[in-house]
Amino acid sequence: MKRTPKIDNIRNIGIIAHIDAGKTTVTERILYYTGKSYKIGEVHDGEAVMDWMVDEQERGITITSAVTSCNWQGTDVQVIDTPGHVDFTIEVERSLRVLDGAVGVFCAVGGVEPQSETVWRQADKYKVPKIAFINKLDRVGADFFNTVAEMKERLNAAPLLLQIPCGSEDRFEGVFDLLHMQKIVWDDETLGASYSTLDLTPDEQANLAPHREQLLETLAEVDDQIMEMYLNETPIATDVLETAIRRATIDLKRVPVLCGSALKNKGIQPLLDAIVSYLPSPLDIPAIKGLHPDSGETVACPPKDRAPLAALIFKVSMIEGRKMTYARIYSGKLKAGEEVYNATRKKKERISRILMMHANKRDRLDEAGAGGIVGIVGPKESSTGETLCQMEHPVLLEDIDIYQPVISVAVEPKTHTDQEKIEEVLGKFIAEDPTLKVKIDEDTGQTILSGMGELHLEIIISRMLREFKTSVNVGKPQVVYRETIDSVGEGQAVFDREVAGQRHFGEVALRLTPLPRGTGNVVLSDVAEDQIPPALVPAVEKGVLESLESGTLMGYPVVDVQAELVGGSFKESQATELAYKVSASMACKDALSKGSPFLLDPIMKVEVFVPEAFMGDVIGDLNARGGKIDAIEHRIGQQAITASVPLARMFGYSTALRSASQGRGTFSMHFYHFDRSG
User: Fold this and answer.
1) Furthest C-alpha separation in the chain
2) Rounded distance, CA 77 to CA 315, Å?
């Protein structure tokens, strides 16, 4: 199958939101109304097409980002449905890195929730144009305008209201289109597949006039053409407005806002129209730039099929035990059966098959062009964040940020057969998930599995049994700390030894200085060439950085430290990179022990939603856990308490909250930063 759609008819979008905002329900309606699915899959029934994993269906949440493609009005819409739970933030990060646009889904009852803020900031980081869909307007407590206000306040967004709801809660019947000044009402008997556009009554026109005026004013602020026509009171044609909205969206100046109820099949077709009309094609965004792996020169990768190949691997998954690599093609073409060059690893890989994905189902392609998001079978060693290109045109695209784990469990195989399989199985999970870490405890010999949260590790353990038939005993969750120093520490070390018949000598003196929290580690050199030749300084730097991976207190990574090379010596014939790397590592350990080392706790941002009657008990409990109350906000029927709490004190919190609120409280939690607790 050959499939290379015109690049300006491609929309690469992601659906992003807080857990339970309705992302997957929105995606399922998109698939149904575009004809990709013959029936609507419901999350609550465990039948959502995009939530194809057993754990996703059982828990009713999205765990892995799923890729699909559909067509709307001649435009290829490639959709990535992303997780909402904070434990799977890396899935969102990886997706946003390769998307051209995003649809932010907000619950009209919950408003802008903490994870909404997180994913929105991630989209801002990659300069992804966005449109917003305010969902669940049929629910009790739905408040469209409050959600819009929270978008301004919490997301620093500039909403551009294109629709407002017609009714709310049980009286919600459709939307008012402010662009065309029409009322849109959906037909329940056809599950929303058909809908009517109705003329406005005089009362409705009068009520909507201020909102229409606000739309024009908001757009005029960022568009000179609209401003001129608005000030001159010239009638503005709808197509002129649409062009201006598209410009403002792609330039990240405005966020078009639409609304509806995905579960009740209302609002999806206009959302699809907005995706096609306002979100960019690959041609509308600046060409991605990479670096030449040898010269370091900037290399432009224009979105053209005839340009040299540049594709970024953004995800690796194990489907039925087989490796599937997901890639975004920025320029050039991928062809089945051809060899490509992995510029990150400097190795060749063969492309056996190219697949157009539909969740866990797929169609084979002979080739895929610029702008495509495809699954690839064949690459054996390539991993997340690596670049595929042509050997004669090498390029390294920007890597994807990887988050560090904050929680660990010990896993032990139950049988001898499991013992033989566990290393292979965990190796597959690590290839799939860069936030998952595995190490062997030197003292106990136990396998330590580290991840982003309790749910993250639960899912991994469950998949080990379900997919790979590997059973393990699991220890209690343990917090993954960091180490740092409180004062300046100096260390010195000499490595003078014969190895494999050669004498190796290196002497290094280091000074370690604490840095502000969140700075990271810095290595500097302040030695004369006659003390340590410049050619050996990189070996010192490497030895220091490797040493900082394991602290002197409990072996956790050391952070926020400046290591300065302040002295040393060398012997002409015996000075080797090995000697200076080892002596630097030894000197670093010596300096760490003298710098008053201490532990840093992972601090979590916790948001608790609770009726006012229970607020005192909840705040008291958070204080008892060493938490710091950051804010208390009144929401409809409840209070939202935001606090910073050490992760170590949050185990079992769901049970404690249920007890303190008679089962009426809920909470969300995500990693905030590392800091000294208490």
Assistant:
1) 96
2) 19
Q: What average pLDDT does the structure give for the chain?
A: 84
Asked whether 197 and 184 are in contact (CB, 8 A), the reply is yes
Domain 407-480 listed as CATH 3.30.70.870 = yes
Which residues have C-beta within 8 Å of that of residue 424, sequence separation ≥ 6?
none
Residues 11, 72 contacting (CB under 8 angstroms)? no
How many other C-beta atoms lie within 10 A of the C-beta of residue 124? 15
Percent residues over pLDDT 70 in the chain: 89
600-675, CATH topology level:
Alpha-Beta Plaits (3.30.70)
In 3D, which of 282, 397, 314 has the Cα closest to residue 5? 282
Divide the 678 residues of the chain into consecutive groups of 10 and give the mean pLDDT of each group. Answer: 70 82 82 73 42 42 60 88 52 75 91 78 86 94 93 91 92 94 90 89 94 94 92 91 96 96 92 96 90 88 92 77 83 92 91 79 85 88 86 83 71 77 78 76 73 76 78 80 94 90 91 92 89 91 93 90 92 89 95 94 87 90 92 79 89 82 78 80
Q: Domain 288-389 falls in which CATH fold?
A: Elongation Factor Tu (Ef-tu); domain 3 (2.40.30)
H, E, C per residue of 418-484: HHHHHHHHHHHHHHHCCCCEEEECCCCCCEEEEECCHHHHHHHHHHHHHHHCCCEEECCCEECCEEE
The residues near 304 (Cβ < 8 Å, ≥ 6 apart) are: 7, 331, 332, 370
Give per-residue pLDDT as tens, 566-582: 999 988 888 899 999 99
Q: How far apart are CA 311 and CA 293, in angstroms?
A: 15
pTM > 0.70? no
CATH of 10-200+238-284, picked from 3.40.50.300, 3.90.1300.10, 3.50.50.60, 3.10.20.30, is 3.40.50.300
487-541 per-position pLDDT tens digit: 999 999 999 998 888 899 999 999 999 999 888 899 998 888 888 988 999 999 9
By the 8 A CB rule, do 43 and 17 touch? no
Question: What pairs with residue 383 in β-bridges?
Answer: none
Task: List Cα–Cα distances, 387 to 160, 313, 345, 427, in angstroms.
Answer: 37, 6, 9, 21
Residues 338, 270 contacting (CB under 8 angstroms): no
Among candidate residues 153, 116, 97, 157, the one with its CA nearest the CA of residue 22: 116
- The 8-class DSSP code of residue 283 comes to G
Q: Provide the residue ranges of all domains of the chain, joining segments of one domain with +.
A: 10-200+238-284, 288-389, 407-480, 483-595, 600-675
Secondary-structure class of domain 483-595 per CATH: alpha beta
